[in-house]
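Q: Joint fold for the lines below.
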Amino acid sequence: LAKTTQPISMDSYEGQEVNITCSHNNIATNDYITWYQQFPSQGPRFIIQGYKTKVTNEVASLFIPADRKSSTLSLPRVSLSDTAVYYCLVGDPQGAAGNKLTFGGGTRVLVKP
Amino acid sequence: GAGVSQSPSNKVTEKGKDVELRCDPISGHTALYWYRQSLGQGLEFLIYFQGNSAPDKSGLPSDRFSAERTGGSVSTLTIQRTQQEDSAVYLCASSLAPATNEKLFFGSGTQLSVL
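A: Joint structure:
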């Protein structure tokens, strides 16, 4: 089964860049890497997804090295409203259709003024 | 609907009672997932549906937990003889297809409190 490892927490300040690295050594060839953001009392929300190299959208960038055994979510110039838990998600490498999409423990990001 | 809808948003019950939690996924989404999140913890996978069938029930914590999905749409998670350790937020998510490159859309969850 795919297993992801992330730092438990990170602190930052407004305007700084936050980088969160997720390890996923058992990622399968067909698996994508997806990141979700969760605010208190809400369900997780999709942020970004990638397969290899670099993906960028209006919210974040995702960096994936060639071996794909890790990925880094980069949040540019964070604000207080970016305080949340960030989850890295990869699929079950043994799964076919009907993957057990397993979330890791998440990284609590606290943005300070 | 525009998003995944879960009801009730909050449920308080007494130990030993049965509860039913409902999830109404986004129209057209064939895949549906149930997760459990205890206070301050990550998401624990419970069960997954493709259409009306559940190929993976391995995440259900015990035989007190069951789930069904009818008409490829609404799903119900039932917990029988609730215990205090069942207290958690139960989250439902849906996606267009059961693949890892499909976005999951989550509801706001049901906060279950077992007294």
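Q: Anything notable?
A: Confidence is low (pLDDT under 50) at residues 93-98 of chain A. The longest strand of chain A covers residues 84-90.
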